[in-house]
Amino acid sequence: MQLQNKKILLGISGGIAAYKTPDLVRKLTAQGATVRVVVTASAKEFVSPLSLQAVSGHIVHDSLLDPAAEAAMGHIELAKWADILLLAPATANLLAKLTVGLADDLLTTLCLATRAPLVIAPAMNQQMWQAAATQQNMSVLTARGIDFIGPASGAQACGDTGYGRMSEPEDIVEHLCKCTAAKTLPDLSATRVLITAGPTQEALDPVRYISNHSSGKMGYALAHAAQQAGAEVVLISGPTTLNVSPGITKIDVVSAEQMHNAVMGQIQQCDIFIATAAVADYRASSVADNKIKKKDEELTLTFVKNPDILKTVANLPSPPFTVGFAAESQNVEHYARSKLHNKKLNMIAANNISTAGLGFNSDHNALHVIWPDGEQHLPAQPKVQLAGELLSVVATQFKKKTSK
Ligand code: PMT
Question: Is 179 known to be catalytic?
Fold first, then answer.
């Protein structure tokens, strides 16, 4: 009964996966949750409100302008009632509406009116899932701290195969159980946190650069978690497509040198420095003024070392509590411990980037967090959730150090 006393508002939009929602409601209630259901007009084409009423034990809400329903439990009351707003299945259309903040029916109005965390289980045709607009909407929603589960990959009702299937009800329930069991955020009020995120781009000529696959998701998730924990947050970001919530100060940079200068400009005012960015170790020794022309069979470029931002910060006369990341594909713990020691860090978070689906440019990650006299494994989970867990570990060690 891991969802005992949890009030879950289930929002169902119009996709074929809606037929699984009575089973989802039964599984949620079996874990002790109280479930109330809201359906969109098109969801009713796929699942009967009467079935949902029977399994949830509550009248199903479907209209913003129904005086009888409003008199029983008004939409603002419903928005305030929920501990979690779960959208399953969430169509591409619903994701697009959430991204721009449309409130043209009961469900989208509730999404704006609630303070409850949103958990979204998308479901749509695989091509619609891959569409640039859907992916961009996902990035915006993820950057707002919204938690996604799935979609899963497999055969689809339309005959296609690929990502777009709604996660199975048991996986959604398990995910909610884990989320609600996750530690609450630490109190970081009156703490200034500086975070680097994303890749750097090192120019070769006016049109080319070298870079890496960092999306910035890990760093942005940490910035949002730190802000929610009450910290004053400055995020120094390489080029990404992500947005930050109002209240986080974001400084955009492109190259490692620019990131270094931006960090040095902020470091005196910060208590905790977390370096999630995937900074290029080298840059071209000179950037060509004009586009490099294709002439010979081979092209040789020379590179020079970039400043090591993390090491510079950790070796300042009065450094902040300094946390590094280590992305490693082999001997993960060994290399991470070497970095912790050689760079004189307070803590390092190691990711094993050889695990498929974790690390670079993924929504999920797992970390082995190591500090001089301790360590903790944070298992694979959405980066949005992992960020909160990492922050709890950081806050505990930071407070121990500053109380000495
Ligand atoms: O951005 P995402 O797609 O969400 O992916 C997240 C991530 C995989 C990029 C992130 O979790 C991660 O592991 N970041 C560090 C990646 C890395 O480049 O590690 P590194 O071993 O090269 O660097 C070690 C540490 O030194 C890092 O904290 C890095 O920010 C820092 N560094 C490195 C080089 C340099 N010149 N300056 C630095 O500050």
Answer: no
